[in-house]
Amino acid sequence: MASQKDLDFGMRCIKYMLCVANVMFVLVGLLLISIGYTIKSIYTNFEEFMETYYYNPATLSIVIGFFIFIIAMFGCVGAIRKSTFLVNTYAFLLSLVLVLEISVCIAAYAMRSNIENNIAYNMRVAMSHYDMEYNAFTWNSTQYNLQCCGVDYYEDWNVYSERTNFPLVAVEVNNQTMHMPTTCCEFEVCTPGSIYLRGCLPRLSSIISQCALLLAVGALCVSMIQVLGIVFAHMLAKSIRKLKTQMLIAKEERRRHFYEQMVKNESEKSKKDIFAPQESNA
Q: Model pTM?
């Protein structure tokens, strides 16, 4: 039977191991929050072209990251108080987080399908309302940062050449007059040689697709770590139960040994009293 000293040492080891695991999960939570906020900030630059549900995987990633901080508390408290209930709760919550992370992977991967058609439609709608300040800002920012022009080609802007309220400039290209915003040109100075010939749709679709892939891969990697955490938490709960059982058995053995020693002492005392010589009154 293990000594009390060995049992206490084993329990301390479990506490330290769980604390290390919690530090790891806090770092994982920070990673998820960082990925989520980075992708949301990238999407914000093209918000007018984005569907609302494109933000859902990134938002869910941020929520999971904050949720992991709360879960880590259950693991720490459970280890300090040697509570199998809290450690099992810790493992259960990790399982829920695992399900959410798998949902992020599925949502991010599914988002990649039909992404180009949805973005193209939104870009054309925003282009037709280029006279509105917000649409103009989004289009100008996109064309300037991605060094592109129009949806598919720079000729897309020529459809709106008769819109007098559109701030477009005329450029002679191959003996044809083309109309476009100044952000379609390098350094916003439009000449036949400074026009961005490529459309913005392929580049924007590629960026969003890569962000979705990054989010899916990040959530998948974290999920694999979560599986190890769940197994580890169950092993800790089992070890705590085993150590508590051993401590209880050791306590009962000490108590039984104490009672046996008392009975033995009482028995020896009775024998001495019986066989002790009686003093005679002479």
A: 0.69
